[in-house]
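Q: What structure does this chain adopt?
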Amino acid sequence: MKELDINTWNRKQHFDHYMTLADPFFAVTVEVDVTKMYQLAKKTNTTFFARYLHACMIAINSIENFRYRIIEDKIYIYDEIAASATIARPDHTYGFSFIYFSPDFETFNTNFLREKERIVNSTDLFPPVNSKDCIYCSAIPWINFKGHKETFAGDVKDSIPRLAFGKVVRTQNSLMMPLAIAVNHALVDGHHVGLFIDEFQNNLLKI
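A:
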C-alpha cells in the first residue's frame, strides 16, 4: 500500500469537488454475457458464483482507481483488493465474507469455500477481517433487475465500491446477467467503470 499525492494528482479538483457532496456515489446497471462462464462452472463442477466473482476480481484489481481508498484525509493505493461478498445460510440470513484475491482460480476458490464454511457454521454478520481493502458485493439471483441502489451511511470518505449480480436470463443463444456497480465519484469516473465492465466481460468469455 502506498499513498497517492493528492496535490500532484490530475484529478485533485475532481476529488475536492465530489468530497463536498452529501452523496458522492454514482451507479450504473448493465448486462454481461455469462454463457461461457456458466458452462465452465458446470463442466468443472465448481460454483458459478465463485467463477464469475473471480473474473470480477481480476478486473477490479487490474484498474488502479478501484484500489484507491480514502483513509482520514489521505488517499492510499492498495496492492490488492479482496471480495467482501454476502454468503447465504440455510435459514435465509447471510454473513459478510472476506475472500482474499488470487489470480489463480483454484487458490481463490479455496479462499471462497473456507469463508463459505465459516459463515454457514456461524451466526455472525461481520467477518473477523473487516478492512477497507475490499469491494462489497452481493448476488441477487432471484431478480432480473434493471436498476439497483446500494445503502449509503452518509460518510463521504466511504470509498469501497459496491457491486450486485442479478438473475441469469436466457436471451436467444446467450445467458445474460445484470450487474450493478456503485463507486465514489471522488475516486472513480465513468471512464474507469467502463474499463472495469469491459475487462470483466472479457474475463467472462475466457475459458
